[in-house]
Amino acid sequence: PLWIHSATIWNDTGVMSSLLLAAACALLLRRTGRRSVFVIGFLALCYAQAAKQTAILAAIPLFYILCDAFFNSGHRHGHWPKILMLATTLLICSLTSVYILSSVGVEKYTKWPTIAVWDLAAVSVTKQKSLIPSAILNFKDDSETESLNRIKEAFNPAVNGPLARAANFFPEPEYRQELFDAWLALPLDYPVSYFGHRSRVFTRLLGIGTDQIQLAFEHRIIDNDMGLKLLNQDKQILNKAIQWLSLSTNTFIYRPWFYMAVLILILIWKAIRLKQNNSFGSRFLVCMGLSGLLYVSPLLILAPATDFRYNLWMVACSAVMIFFITRSRSTL
């Protein structure tokens, strides 16, 4: 499943690979003692945090286990000042990575307005009143009833893309504060509608109560400025792969809740056994489980859509944990 889910061309795959590299560096560092491996894992965490905000929390357990392997210290407290110093360095390097990515032409846009517009539209549909600031709407001269009807037509509970027909996802700076204030007021003014919408998004994101998995994989490479495209001789292979992947979407392979359930069970089991067997291997598996959960937990409030790709790192953590607990004890 780890490699099947890589059939998507988004930064989620790159972030998953970077976090996986950091985890692998922790294992290799523990086994070989090569300090250069720590640097590689450290840089991998810097890139992951710079490329995607949800990786910030997920990187914390990985950073801990990387430092654990680096100092070969277990839970001895003498190295905590050094770990805090390295954590500060990690934060600085991550911020520097954001600047470096921007300087080489990597385009990043502020995603919170997209989430805000989607949340406001969802509550607007529920409460039968337009809550999106008029300055953000694409039809400013319409009456409130007409605006609400246009929002209803554009609103999709699974994805936010269609809402671009009704509202501006990239408002001018002078309108962003008004949008931000309206967004923050939702959980206070309409808590039932807001959290109801958010819970439906999160359960759909996990594949619970739905047969349609949103954007499970990519069918093609979208036209791009770099001219990247599939070679003609690859199309036959691609069609067979797409046919197989399409069949797989109806199985547990594309059900994130399955991986979350497995991850939580293994995490609880290892956390309980940690008191009896405080080995590096046990700590590694606990950190992998925590990293996977911390990756998806912010999506309860901040998921901009229900795309499957937002679960990639949690799925990877589950796959790695399953792999290691089915191996011999000497593996770790």
* Helix count from the secondary structure assignment: 13
Global Rg? 22 Å
Please state the structural category.
mainly alpha
Largest sheet: none
Give the overall average pLDDT: 82
**Considering DSSP H and I runs of 4 or more, what fraction of the residues is helical?**
55-70%
What percent of residues are in strands?
A: under 5%
End-to-end distance:
22 Å
- Number of distinct beta strands: 0
The coarse silhouette is: globular
Quaternary class: single chain
Poorly predicted segments:
none
N-to-C series of helices and strands: HHHHHHHHHHHHH
What's the gist of this structure?
This protein is mainly alpha-helical. It is built from 13 helices and no strands.
General description of the model:
Helix content is 62%, strand content 0%. It is built from 13 helices and no strands. It has helices spanning 11-32, 35-51, 55-71, 80-103, 112-127, 144-154, 173-189, 191-205, 235-248, 256-273, 280-296, 299-302, 312-325. The protein is globular and about 70 Å long. The model has no long low-confidence stretch (mean pLDDT 82).
